[in-house]
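Residues pack. Consider this:
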Amino acid sequence: MTMMEWKETPQNKQALVELLYQLADDDYIHAYRGSEWLGLAPHIEEDVAFSSINQDTMGHAAMYYKLLEELGEGKVDHLSHLRDVTQFRNAIILEEKNGPGEYTEKPEYDWAFTVIRHFFYDLAKKIRLQSLNQSSYEPLAIVARKIITEQTYHLMHWEVWFQQLMVSTNEARRRMEDAIERVWDDFGGVLTLGDYGDDMVAAGLIESEELLKKRFMNQIQSYFKQVHLTVNTAPGMSKGNGRNGEHTDDLLHALRTLSEVYRSDPQAIGW
């Protein structure tokens, strides 16, 4: 992407705000779903590693919310805890529960689904960050440069899980292929920039949706080839487009949990 000079216009600012909400909300809800594996991961080393990844990802969301605060959108805590569910811009696949049950009551979470969702997302996120590295809005470019180093290690983590499980037992392979089909059906929601995508590109904030999708498809197909898997369809959006405020009850449930303490006393100060 050729570097462009940021121009403060109402149209450009709206595009910037929409992009920041997508980036922040994706990481926010994705980190939460990951955090629900605390104490439930397949082994203790994974429990520690996964918790660290989720902490990093929540920190990334906080950086994007901070940029929104600086643009006059409201306080960081309000943006993450007090917005209505229809105001969130995260992709629907990221809000879906890890599996049946609740964290504190009979959780029957699907590790294959979690591996695929995180692997696909972290690959798409890295591609997006590489584009944001040259964003015309310098504060956003700076944040992307801070995040991308951590993101490289996050992706490496899920690459290992993907490759090992895909060539493991027949049962592991079957579960992974089922998870791939499930995630693929809605992963187009991660790859889209929504209705303001053209304005984001025109303002030099990020490269085009088409180009980012092409990079993702080229790289994911390379991974598929390594494990002798063929996927001929494009990622879909079977449950709707979260960039437009379309969401499932899973997001409402997650936000109620995330904001329960904050909503009880927004004026409280932590010590």
